[in-house]
Amino acid sequence: MRNKDKIDSQLVGAAGEHFVVSRLLYQGMLASLAPRGVRKSDVLVNHPDGKGSSLIQVKTTQKGKDEWIMKPADADNQEKDMFYCFVNLESTPESVYVLPAQIVSRVLIAADRAWMSKPRRDGKRKAEHKMWTLKNNFSVEVKNAPHGWMNKYREAWDLITKRS
Question: Which fold has domain 9-161?
Fold first, then answer.
């Protein structure tokens, strides 16, 4: 059992990346961490039969909620071979949501629009921001992301392993 004190966010991120690699290896995929400094992906995946490769961006939380901090640039990742793995290290057992980047992009954009359309408490318009949040349960109504929308992607490794 780990110490419940806050762990450095870089260590949490590394734990999530290694967790995803271990799950992919267990699925029979050739997976490795991307070299440090690679902008778009954390994990590189190749199919052992040569069918193709995938890039994975890993987002990890230790907060016990199914929500992850994102950046507006994450909405730009729409390649067919790009996936996101959202790791929750505090769930029991630990869980991973596996989503195609195109879906993440659509939901991020819709969630930001929904959030920005609501005025602040003082009635003023919200200012542009640099941090977005992807949630399984948004506090505002988001098109294509009803309450629990991510559940169908929980442990959905087939989206990567069954690609042709």
Answer: Trna Endonuclease; Chain: A, domain 1 (3.40.1350)
